[in-house]
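A student in our group prepared the protein record below, which I am reviewing. I have pasted the whole thing underneath without changing anything:
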Amino acid sequence: MLDNSDCKIAAADALTLLLHNQHALSAAIEEITRWLSENGVESVASNAVAAMETLDTNAKAISNAIMRLRQE
């Protein structure tokens, strides 16, 4: 059975992978948003920007959680 320290390391590692996924999703949405804007679909592009802002906000929270887990 894992001790508390091992559990924290595993949780931090899993959160790090999720954070990398968030960054990849954000990059993909950014590319799609640019294409939408260039092709006159501004309303959809605006929704995509809102989604990216949510990803950024959540990425900051995930980063903070990772830092707390790794410091303890």
In short: Residues 14-71 form one domain. DSSP finds two helices and no strands in the chain.
